[in-house]
Amino acid sequence: MEQEVLAYLDVDGNIIDTQTAEQRGISNEVIHFDNSDNSLEIIRHSTAHLMAQAIKELYNNSQFFVGPVVDEGFYYDFRVDEKISEDDLKRIEKKMKELIKKKHKIEKYEMTKAEALEKFADDDLKLAVLSRIPDESISIYKQGEFEDLCRGPHVPALRFLHNFKLTRVAGAYLGGDENSEMLTRIYGIAFADKESLKEHLKMIEEAKKRDHRKLGSELELFTFDEESGAGLPFWMPKGARLRAKIEDILFKAHRKREYEPVRGPEILKAQMWHTSGHYACYGENMYLTEIDEQEYGIKPMNCIGHIQIFKQSGKSYRDLPVKYFEYGVVHRHEKSGVLHGLLRVREFTQDDAHIFCTPEQIKAEVIEVVEFVDAVMKKFDFNYTMEVSTKPEKAIGEDAVWELATQGLKDALNENNIAFKIDEGGGAFYGPKIDVKITDALGRKWQCGTIQVDFNLPERFGLEYVAEDNTRKQPVMIHRAILGSFERFIAILTEHYAGEFPFFIAPTQIIFVPISTDHVAYAKELKNLLIDEGIDSEIYDKNDSLNKRIRLAEKQRVPYVAIIGDEEVKNRAIAIRDRRAKEQYNLTQDELMVKLIQQLKEGKI
Ligand SMILES: [Zn+2]
Ligand SMILES: [Zn+2]
Fold first, then answer.
1. Across 155-159, 259-263, 457-461, which has the greatest mean pLDDT?
2. Which residue among the candidates 19, 53, 143, 350 is catalytic per the annotation?
3. Environment class of residue 406 by beta-carbon count within 10 Å: exposed (0-12), middle (13-18) or buried (19+)?
């Protein structure tokens, strides 16, 4: 690929486009025209402007709001009289290509806010943008006749924007406010080269096929019912089996690491949420109710339950660390517009744990959690990255404790040879944290687990332990979830494996297809033997023809299908179709049991 200069980085790591660099005389660290994160950010944002330019030419009356870069590429929100549908995207793309051929440079000039307010006086959307930015100098980018208010950064010229695709049209409330007008939003994606764009589009196609909402209903894992309420999943038998298997594997994994299972109530008096600070800071996302004329809150987190259990008996330094875990059901209000299959729901279950320890123990505990995360992610074939978020400007807790905790997190990752990024100042006000981002089979990144050090709740709830010198000290709490939630993790797993779950969690691990009714009894016998071993099977003996039943079984994406006829019953043997290995072979009943039990054990963490 050409190594052309696209922009620069200043000493603080900010992207400075060539237009601005010229003004400021910056020329040190170069961003090349390639597919690096910085380069793509500039390319995608500039492509959003190119799209706006094309829309303006096609729809004279169009007005533009904002066009940021997002995880899936870029978008631009705008107002237009006509209704724009997916069919119009081609036309807009064509216009964009025409514009590139005009070889416009992208020029930048500046004006005061007062001048900008005058310039855009009859464009209420641009005035809305201006009202959101501080009274400093305003920059305008110009390409050909098209001018747009923007703080940049932009590519130097339109010729850098050849490899793009507009992906979808949506509606978006002005400024995300549900009470405001609905604007049109077009999403797109762009890369430095054609090959990367092609690969990405292929990935999007594959992702559509794997959409967990589609597979979830095809494989009968879960469903939603608007009549019952949006964002509230129903787990169907196969989904519940899948989930129970993951729960079981993780339960044992926690016990091996000396966590104790606990369980707190689903609702707690509002006073508890006042004490925790959730009422003030998180109240609008909580569901509240009333019992005996007293206000209660349905829990959005499980922390308080574990805190109250910790407080049940006096603790000494010898008792620490105390590690509690719970598959905690929580409710959080999400706006209806953001609900998305199992990925964004209003009720979900966290694989939640709280570690109560001394500040000196933070590092060792985090090392253990990181090891735990690693084991879980490897088990499910995920790569992952970690990010440490440090002390923000507004924070509680002593500097020395922050220092100890933050260093503890970094050391824990370094000692495990885990590369991590640092989000300077990105921690919560109550403590530093590690976020785990996993990468699925399609290369998409998902935020899942988190390890969060907390100095705040122990203080608010007056937690203490008797230290070695007999004084009373305050423990630190570590909140941690590895999957995040079962709902979200299963959504990701479903897409990651395209529904072909590994044997040890497959909802149905083997399907028996008896040739005739004479063979059903043996299938039932096998099914019960397998249940005793924790292995789930189904028998396809309904009225359909044998071929149809085999076809239905194959479609279920199960690891094994076994056909049972006279020979099998007589010899107590099984004819296996191994769907994953794409092989067929015969096993004796004993061989089958040994094989399946062995494969189940591969799920150990
Ligand atoms: Zn811009
Ligand atoms: Zn917590």
1. 259-263
2. 350
3. buried
Domain spanning 5-205: CATH 3.30.980.10: yes
Question: In CATH, what number does 510-601 get?
Answer: 3.40.50.800
CA angle 74–75–81, rounded 5-degree value: 160
Name residue, tokens 């995300």. Answer: 176
Q: Which fold has domain 216-264+302-495?
A: BirA Bifunctional Protein; domain 2 (3.30.930)
**What is the reported pLDDT for 132?**
84
What's the CA gap between 292 and 295, in Å, rounded? 8
CA of 46 to the centre of ligand 2 (A): 41
CA of 152 to the centre of ligand 2 (A): 39
Q: Which residue has the higher pLDDT, 9 or 312?
A: 312
The DSSP-derived string for 176-237 is: G-TTSPEEEEEEEEEESSHHHHHHHHHHHHHHHHH-HHHHHHHTT-EEEETTTEEEEEEE-H
| Residue in the structure block whose two tokens are 């088990």 | 379
397 pLDDT more than 80: no
For residue 49, indicate whether it is catalytic. Answer: no
Determine whether 479 is an active site residue: yes
CA 104 to chain centre: 39
390 alpha carbon – ligand 1 mean position (Å): 30
Residue 179: predicted pLDDT: 86
**pLDDT at position 1 over 80:** no
Mean pLDDT of 122-127: 90
**Is 254 in the active site?**
no
pLDDT digits (tens, 9 = 90+) for 164-189: 999 999 999 988 888 889 999 999 99
Pinpoint the residues of the chain covered by CATH 3.40.50.800: 510-601
How far apart CA 594 and CA 600 sit, in angstroms, is 10
Q: What does the alpha-carbon distance between residue 360 and residue 367 come to, in Å, rounded to a whole number?
A: 13
Catalytic residue among 352, 435, 536, 541: 352
- Nearest ligand by distance to the CA of 458: 2
Q: Where in the chain is the domain with CATH 3.30.980.10?
A: 5-205
Q: Which residues make Cβ contacts (< 8 Å) with residue 173, sequence separation at least 6? A: 179, 180, 181, 182, 183
Looking at the chain, the domain(s) classified CATH 3.30.930.10 span 216-264+302-495
pLDDT of residue 343: 95
Share of the chain above pLDDT 70, in %: 99
Return d(Cα 571, Cα 386) in angstroms, integer.
54
Cα-to-chain-centroid distance, residue 172: 21
Specify whether 252 is catalytic.
no
User: How close is the Cα of 153 to the center of ligand 1, in Å?
Assistant: 6
